[in-house]
Every structure is written in C-alpha cells, then in structure tokens.
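Reviewers asked in the last cycle whether our approach scales beyond single polypeptides. To address this, we selected a multi-component target totalling 561 residues and predicted its structure end to end. The input consisted of the following lines:
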Amino acid sequence: MGFNVQDIRADFPILHQEAYPGRPLIFLDSAASTQKPSKVIEAMANIMERDYANVHRGVHILSQRATDIFESCRAKVASFMSAEEREIVFTKNTTEAINLVANAWGRSKLKTGDQILITELEHHANIVPWQLICSETGADLVVTRIHDDGTIDLDDFRSKISSGKVKMFACAHVSNVLGTVLPLEILIPEAKAAGALTLVDGSQGITHRKVDVGTIGSDFYVWTAHKLYGPTGIGILYGSYHVLDSMSPWQGGGDMIASVSFEGSTFKPAPYKFEAGTPAIIEAAGLSAAIDWVESVGIENIEKHEAELVVAAHDALAKIEGVKIYGTAPNKASVVSFLCDKAHAHDVGTLLDRAGIAIRVGHHCAEPLMQRYGLASTARASFAAYNTLEEVESLAKAVTAAQEFFS
Amino acid sequence: MFDDFQDLYQEVILDHGKSPRNKRSVENSTHQAYGNNPMCGDKLALYLRVNGQGLVEDVGFQGEGCAISEASASLLTEVLVGKTKAQAMELFDAFHKLAKGEDVHKLSDELLDDFGRLEVLGGVRAFPMRVKCATLAWHTLDSALNLKDEATTE
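The resulting structure, written as structure tokens, was:
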C-alpha cells in the first residue's frame, strides 16, 4: 500500500483546526504524545455504547464481551511485538512498567554492591525507579556515557558492563531528546553475556521502528499506548515468561489472586499476578484499534516518511544562523532538539505557539541529559506519520522569525 | 507578529530580557534564596542587603532564564531598593495577582509608581503556561525575606 500523508491526516480529526484564528494547527509534539485516529476514538466509544462491563468476573454477556475485547488486545499486542500472550502485562504506562520491574524483580533480587546500569540519555522514567530501588537495597546506579553527537560510548559501556556486578542493564530504544536510535543489537547481547537482565524502554521506539522481541532479545521491553496513536492510561510490559514467572507480585488486590483468606493469599500466574484491580478496559479497546491502524499504514512506511521529515528539519534548521541542533546521530528517529542563540527555548515556544505550531520546550523529563550538555532546556520538534514537509517549512520560517524578533 | 504576542513581549521586557539590570551578587547580603521552575528548568538566585532600619539597600540576581523571567527579575531589583519588607510583600502580592489575571487591590500610594512599572508584565495573563516565568523572581523574594527554603513555582 502506498503512503499518502493527506490520507493519513484525514484519519485524525484533531488536526483539522486552527490553533488561533487564521493559524492552522501544526502539531510537532508527538514525542510527548501522539494524536488519535478516528478508529481509536470510535473503538472506545463503541465498547462503552455496546459491550462495557468489568472483566474476568461476570458470567453475564457484557462481562464476557468486555473480557473478550480486553484479552484480544493482549493477543494483538503480543502479535505486534512477536511475543506470547502470557508475556504481555498491562500497566498504566511506561513509567509504571519500569517501576513494576524495579520493585517486583529488584526488591528481592538486589543486594548491596550490585549494580544497575543505564545510559546518560535516559528520561526520568528510566532513572528514578532504579534510584528508588537502589536506595532501598543498597545497589548502585551506574551510568554509561554518550558522545556529543548523542551516540552511546561503547567503550564506556563495555568497561562498565564487565564489572561483573551489573544485574540489570536498562536503556532507551530511542532518545526522546536527541533522537538517537540505540544499537540494541550490540548492547543487549553484550549485557546478557555479562550476566545482566536487560530492559528496553520503548516509549519512543515502538512508534518509529518495528519491534520484534525475539530479534531484540531483551528480557523486558516496555512502552505506552498514547505514543502509538492510542489512548492514555494503558501501557505494556513485555517480559520473557521465565523471568516474569520468577518475579513476585508488586501491587496486590483483586483480579491478580488465585484465592484469598485472612491467613494468606495465592496468586495467579503471570501476567495476571501483575494486574491488580480493574484494568484499563476501554483503553485496551482503543489500543487494539491503534495497532490495527498502525499495521494498516505499515510501521516501515511510517519510519520512511518520518526519516524524510527529520532530514528536512535538520537541513532547514541548520540553515538558520544561530540555531544549533542537539543530537546528530546517524539514522536518528523523529526528534529534533535545537536552541536559538538569540532566544530562550521558552520564548521560541511561545512565539511558535502563536503561529499555530506546537512544539515542546523544557528539559523533556531528562534533566541529567540536559546537564550533560550544560543546558536548562531545549526546543524540540517531533514528527509522526501525519506531519508534512510543508509543516517542516513552517517550523523553519517561525524559528527564523523568533531569531529576528529577539535579536 | 501576533497581537497578544506583542502585548507580552513589549519593548521594556525585550530590553530588560536582553540587558538585565543588577544581574550580579550583592556584597554583604543579608538575605538570599534560590528559586527554580521545575517545569522549564530555569533557576535563579536572589540576593538582598537589608539595613538596620529594615530598608532594602541593594538587590541582585543570577541565573539563566527566558526573556520573561529575566525581565521580571530585572524589574524586581529596580523597584525594591528603599522598600521595607512589608512594602516588598505588598508588591509581591499585587504582582502575583496581576500575573494571574486576578483583581489587584488598591496599593499604598507610595507603591503606585513602582507597581506601574511592573504592569508591563501584565500581558503574561493571556499565556497561562508562562505565568510562572514572570513570578519566579517574586517567589524567590518571598523565600529570601521570609527565610524559607528554596522557592519553587510548583
């Protein structure tokens, strides 16, 4: 199937509006969250209008239908990632998935002197949960350095992974600030060979690259639906089954138990032992529709289209005097961070907003990475399937105007 | 350029944003505090010297911020000299209301001119996401004078 961006745009009702009178919306903040196609919106309305009840606990027709819809989402996610259904745990989002692993695995397995290895480009969700579990268990958080262009310093990685103390290596698939696509084909096998478990934070990866957990080989791969054209409130923890099976529950409650008495409780097997309480049922319907939509377009087509946008954005911004781009790794994904020498990122963000252009400004929930570059904030434009080359041109024009206005 | 954008970035703000006044530490400072805006990562240090009569003798600030926060800090340092702590807090309260678009109560006569200078930042009320940029220096002032820990706009 051919890729026609106007056809893609027609699927997204929200894009067809003016941000301000006479200023059509140009949405360049998809790395924070993507917009939703009509199919997702309809799927969520449909389940509420026809099929909704709580799951896993009723003999009545609606509970059966809702359970079918919910569990078929698990099957769809498993197929989308080339995993098994029992390896897919529903969470609230990426952050909760990482917290789940840090707690359910780390609390019982980590001890003083053990190490968790992450990289310098992680966002807070892949830093803070590890810090918390380290302070609880006496383990140490160790950080692999990056080069100035945003690529991983492999020498530093190799020296740190070979300490013999690393129990978990956790890294992003794609940097949300620099756009770097991490060399998982190097990092994951070497980390596993060194005896560490491995976790890939796919928040930015799942929406730009084909994810096959067999090929990537990590023990965990986590992501969130709202960055894959799906709803907020539902995320995915993939865990290889033998690892999930070895982990204790984290949160307790209904739905995750086999039996409960006041003397003690027994738990269901994975993935259910990690899903306490009523899950995100309506959101699961939306996530299924989002995966259908992505598969109908083709993730490879999206990747190719976004690569054109990133190259065009780099070229256009680099031509503007006084604009510096942060993150110049080869084959980077759909994120362009930049700074203007005449204008603070926040002032640029406000000017662009008034031109109808939505970008993110700030530290992008990656303060240590900002500190590494000696920055408090950057402006970040990020692209999705529905963005166009004309929008990239508008971005460059508005950034030029910002440089002029504040000079 | 767009009208409300021009309202926000008036000439005075652009001027103070580009060439902030009193961007320096203060010798023998009696009060100081650090402010930080977690949303954007902007950080600011404010220094004051208050004399034996309880009057502000000198004010300075350091840090990096957007045009709005730099201009706001710069203007603060200019209007605060010669004020008592009570007057400073009266200005803080009025400025806070101005930035949030709330009604400002009648100020003491001797503060009217100073507040008039601050009103140039009133355009920020049309930009809710930027109100904290304008108020960061003032929250930091509140911390410094009232001996609180680090100020935060959250």
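Chain A touches chain B through 20 residues (CB under 8 Å). We regard this as preliminary and will revisit it once experimental data from Aim 1 are available.
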